């Protein structure tokens, strides 16, 4: 099984970063403006990237200011059954975010494209938390 893993350091309190990663307002500012999100274990978050289907992520774990885990239950076939986790730690006012997208069945071109896009997601998260403006899908240039 393949895994994507990134880390980024954000000059923002851990509680603020956690809030952005778990709320509709926050994820709309950094990932996609078309979404339905609730910070509830068991809820299925829906994200639309204008690709003729919704990406649906079941909220598996919410450990406030520490960890978020989603399981992909519907999306591109390569994503279904994969998991995404965000592990957060804070030191001296800087929050480290470790993003993992795990249980990929194989390393494909789509995997490589997603690897790049997860890095862009973390950059958007950093920009939003530090400067108040993220770059959701609808504002990105591809």
Outline:
By secondary structure, the chain is an alpha+beta fold. It has helices at residues 14-22, 24-30, 109-131; strands spanning 2-10, 34-36, 44-48, 54-63, 67-74, 83-91, 94-104.
Structural features, described:
This protein has 142 residues and is α+β, with helices and mostly antiparallel strands. The chain has one domain (2-131): START domain (Alpha-D-Glucose-1,6-Bisphosphate, Chain A, domain 4, 2-Layer Sandwich), CATH 3.30.530. The protein is 27% helix and 39% strand. The chain has a seven-stranded antiparallel beta sheet with strand order 1-7-6-5-4-3-2, with helices on one face. Strand 2 and strand 3 form a beta hairpin. The mean pLDDT is 96.
The CATH class, by name, is Alpha Beta
CATH overall fold name:
Alpha-D-Glucose-1,6-Bisphosphate, Chain A, domain 4
Q: What class would the helix/strand composition place it in?
A: alpha+beta
Mean pLDDT: 96
Give the total of beta strands. 7
Shape call:
globular
**Oligomeric state, counting identical vs distinct chains:** single chain
Number of helices: 3
Major sheet: order of its strands? 1-7-6-5-4-3-2
* Count of individual domains: 1
Give a quick account of the main beta sheet: strands, pairing sense, barrel closure: 7 strands, antiparallel
Radius of gyration: 14 Å
Organism: Flavobacterium azizsancarii
Protein name: SRPBCC domain-containing protein
Pfam family, one: AHSA1
Family: Belongs to the AHA1 family.
């Amino acid at each position: 099984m393949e895994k994507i893993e990134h880390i980024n350091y954000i000059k923002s309190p851990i509680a603020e970063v956690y809030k952005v990663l778990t709320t509709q307002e926050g994820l709309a500012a950094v990932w996609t403006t078309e979404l339905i999100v609730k910070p509830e274990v068991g809820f299925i978050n829906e994200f639309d990237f204008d690709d003729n289907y919704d990406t649906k992520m079941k909220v598996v774990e919410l450990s406030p200011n520490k960890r978020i885990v989603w399981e992909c239950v519907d999306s591109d076939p390569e994503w279904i059954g994969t998991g995404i986790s965000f592990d957060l730690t804070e030191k001296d006012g800087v929050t480290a975010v470790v993003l993992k997208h795990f249980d990929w069945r194989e390393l494909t071109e789509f995997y490589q494209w997603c690897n790049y896009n997860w890095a862009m997601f973390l950059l958007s998260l950093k920009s939003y938390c530090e400067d108040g403006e993220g770059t959701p899908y609808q504002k990105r240039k591809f």
